[in-house]
Amino acid sequence: MGTLTPVVLAVGTTHPLNIAGVGLDAKVARELDVRIVTVVAGISAQNAQTVLARTPVDAATIAAQFEALGDVTIAAVHVGALLDAESVLAVAAGLMSLPGVPIVCDPVIAASGGDRLADDATIEALRGRLFRQCAVVTPNLDEAGQFLHTRILDVAAMESAAQALLGFGCGAALLKGGHLAGAPIDVLAVPGSVTRFDGDRVEATLRGTGDLLAGAIAARLAHGDDLVASISSARRFVRGCLSAGIAFAGTRTLP
Q1: How many CB atoms neighbour CB 46 within 10 A?
Q2: Structural fold of domain 7-244
Q3: Beta strands per DSSP E along the chain
Q4: pLDDT tens for residues 166-197?
């Protein structure tokens, strides 16, 4: 009898081009040998340059989607962009039905083109309610700066910020340093320790890299890898995507 394919729950917002959001999760799933089920918490109309419209899904519909998944055994969760505080709270309530399942949250505040997706109330709901349920949160420097009301300008500040994010109750914080000059460094903070992930910069432009990374981490957690191994594998996967210049790898780059 073969091994069952692990299931990852993708929670977030649609993107018409599927270069981010729950549509991108479905693409990543094909590469990383997981099955995706979804809870759509928001609908967006956007292209690679601008957000044309954004509509949060109401709390009752979010709750019904979680209820519809009641018979599915979920191995990990990836939470992406949530568009208002009500949907954040509805997602947090739905995730209460999955005790012990690792939750990876990529707290998207703005689209790649710069248009804002999350207002101040949404940011407060993320850090005040949802983060405490997460095994790991994966903000970039701008997002972490907004959660912490600070600017993060170097690796030392990244380490301090990653540790400060733990104060919101998450199990771990992976702070992504790709926006700093020089070789990209990501910093993982867990209670009592900080780990740096180094790498050479790949000169490429690719949308949705935050979704790619968080989705890949969730996939590896679903396969049973520990957090550090999941992050290392996910970073290799994203590097492969950047090198190929496409939204998901054509050749498997993970074990």
Answers
A1: 23
A2: UDP-N-acetylmuramoyl-L-alanine:D-glutamate ligase (3.40.1190)
A3: 7-13, 35-46, 51-56, 76-79, 103-105, 136-137, 173-175, 185-190, 193-198
A4: 999 999 999 998 767 677 789 999 999 999 99
